[in-house]
Amino acid sequence: RFVGNRSSGRMGYAIAAEALKRGASVTLVTGPTHLTPPASATVVTVRSAAQMHAAVMQRAAEQDAIVMSAAVADYTPAAPARDKVKKADGPVTITLNRTKDILADLGTLPSRAHGVPVLVGFAAETSDVVTYAKGKLHQKGADMIVANDVSRADAGFDVDTNAVSLVTSSGVEDVPL
Q1: Confidence at residue 111, expressed as pLDDT on a 0 to 100 scale
Q2: What is the C-alpha separation between 133 and 34, in angstroms, rounded?
Q3: Considering the chain, what percentage of its residues have pLDDT values greater than 70?
Q4: How far is CA 163 from the centre of its chain?
Q5: Which member of 58, 133, 160, 168 has the greatest number of CB atoms within 10 A?
Q6: For the segment 90-99, what is each residue's pLDDT rounded down to a tens digit?
Q7: Residue 21 and residue 14: Cα distance in Å, rounded?
Q8: Number of neighbouring beta carbons within 10 Å of residue 38
C-alpha cells in the first residue's frame, strides 16, 4: 500500500524514442515502470521524487533541451511508515510535505537567461487545462507546456492515445487525438 500518482511513463518513453529516431542523444531519467527503455538511450533509474530531482539537476547543464513529461508527485509522506499501519477505528492522518519542483528549479538556472536548456513541461489537468498551463508556463520559466486533459477516457493516463495543447508565449496550438 502506498500513496502515489497514476502514471505509466508512456509519454516520456515515446518522446525519448522519437528523439533518438531523429538523431538526438537522449538521457532518460525514469521512475518505476513496466516499459522497456529505448535501446540507445542513457537510462537513469530513480525511485522517488527527490532522486529524480537530484538526477535531473545533476545533468541539466549538459542538455540542450529537457522534456519534463514525468508525473512527479507534488507531495511526499513526511514520515513513511516502516511497518504496516494497523487497522483502527476512526480516521488516519498522513502528513505530506511538498516535493521540490524540478521544472521550476530548472527554470531558475543561470543559463536560462540565454534560453538554455530549452524547457518543456507538462500540465496534467482535469479542468481549465489551457488556463492552468499558461500560468505554469510563466511560473516555472518554461518555453513550452504540453497541456494534457487527463479527465478524458481516450487521452492522457493509461491509454496509448493522447490529445494535447502546446502552450508557448506566442500562443496555443491544439494537437488532436
Answers
A1: 94
A2: 29
A3: 98
A4: 17
A5: 133
A6: 998 889 999 9
A7: 10
A8: 18
Summarize pLDDT for 82-129 with one digit per residue, the tens.
Answer: 898 889 999 988 899 999 999 999 999 999 999 999 999 999 999 999
Cβ distance 166 to 136 under 8 Å?
Answer: no
Mind giving me the DSSP string for 53-106? HHHHHHHGGG-SEEEE-----SEEESS--SSPPPP-SS-----EEEPP-HHHHH
Residue with cell 500518482: 5
- Residue 28 pairs with which residues in a beta bridge? 43
Q: Which residue is associated with the grid cell 506566442?
A: 170
**Higher pLDDT residue, 60 or 86?**
60
Looking at the DSSP bridge assignments, the partners of residue 167 are 145, 172
Alpha-carbon span 132 to 76, nearest angstrom: 22
Q: Based on the number of CB atoms within 10 Å of its own CB, is 123 exposed (0-12), middle (13-18) or buried (19 or more)?
A: buried
Q: Is 148 a catalytic residue?
A: no
